[in-house]
Amino acid sequence: MKDGLNERRLKQLSRRELIKLAPVALLGAFAVPGLAPKLVERGVAFSDWASGKLFRGRHLATTFSDSDVVPFEKFPYNGYDVLDPEVDLGRWSLSVEGDVKKPGQYTLAQVQALPKVNQNTRHVCVEGWDVIGAFGGARLADFLALAGADTRARFVEVECADDYYESIDMETALHPQSLLCYEMYGQPLDRGHGAPLRLSLPTKLGYKQAKYLVTLRVTNLLKPKRGYWEDQGYSWFGGL
Amino acid sequence: MEDAAPEPAPERAKPIERRVAAAYEHPWVVRITHWFSAATIFVMVTSGLRIFRAFPSFGPKIPQHDFVDVPKALTLGGWLGGALQWHFTFMWIFLGAGVLYLLYQFLSGHYKTVLFMPRDIRGVWPMARHYFLFGPKPPVTGQYNPLQKLAYTSTILFGIASALTGLVLYKPVQFFWLAWPMGGFHLARLWHFVAMCGFLAFIPGHLVMVVLHGWSNFFSMLVGWKKDPEYLR
Questions:
Q1: Which of A86, A118, B20, B56 is the most exposed place for a label (fewest CB within 10 A)?
Q2: Model pTM?
Q3: Inter-chain residue contact A62 with B61, CB threshold 8 Å
Q4: Do the chains contact at B55 and A129, CB–CB below 8 Å?
Q5: Is B63 part of any domain?
Q6: Are residues B169 and B191 in the same domain?
């Protein structure tokens, strides 16, 4: 725009235009030390809400052929505390609680009696690495049906032998690729990978896929403790 | 009071008023998205580098070969979880500013001032020679010279690339079809990093140019108006 402008008028216009940038100053809130952690926590909560809306229960994670699977030795052991919480495999059972018709102790044999699923899926770690592994187990959805779970409940919580704990949304729990996993690479789960039973959730990040399961609870109300890492700041949804 | 002085007749006052040539260079949407993006890119790069520190490699986890050790001082968030919180918050601001900017540019036609076109190719070298090799200054014909258009257009492309590769990293199952042209989920992480390098390559040159071109140029990104721009002389 070519203009012969009165200098005073230009100053006036400029001032008015500068004021219109005021919304940028809102970002200053993120520079306030006490406020910033709360704001970014809200940001993650919003992202989780959007992730939940985006999630499609029928949308399958990519599965891979056996030749794409990394050798067993190259599938990392990842534990938050100990790699072997010394579960007594002979006496182990899974305690099922909450909104279920048949609460109580479930043995590994009961889980293994459910239709078995073998799938090669990508395990994605929040740290940034990913690895394609071979997992075998029962559909979590089948197990929830066995226990008579009220699938209108919103969450499934698990507790682990190593004091780790997690919770997931019901839609993910019912996803056809979500497994109660008792095998990796065709072998019974070893102690480092979560023997005797772990979650394998190809639609979730690794930290959601709890190992050494001891308790499973169906609930409508999440406890203040939602997950070991989530309580320290990780995204609760953690969905891929 | 100024009014106490006898009011000069308007026809006599006019020649006395200083008139200046000025151009309204940057519309409000461009300015506000520029400053939102500037702050956001700073947060996304520093928190992104903290996230990268958790696994500073593009290869397998076993065996892990670290690509580069990013100094902690350059990072934001304190730890992986904290950095992710910043990243997952500011990604929305980045996306919002980017979408608003692109929509405005295309709907208003203002993009024509910035978009690098094939006809700009031959103007790039003379401009680069002027800036870096003390060559003669090519005639100024518009708001942006071809080298500027190239820099701005590629930075906008880096922005689009960061958003798309970021989406694949964030939701690889829901957006598996988007991962495919990137060579899969695993490589998307590399492209996400490369896009960041694009920003890092642009920013120092951009800042140096801003300093060299002085206040009036800098103010135009704040107030929109530029006094006496070269191309109006």
A1: A86
A2: 0.91
A3: no
A4: yes
A5: no
A6: yes
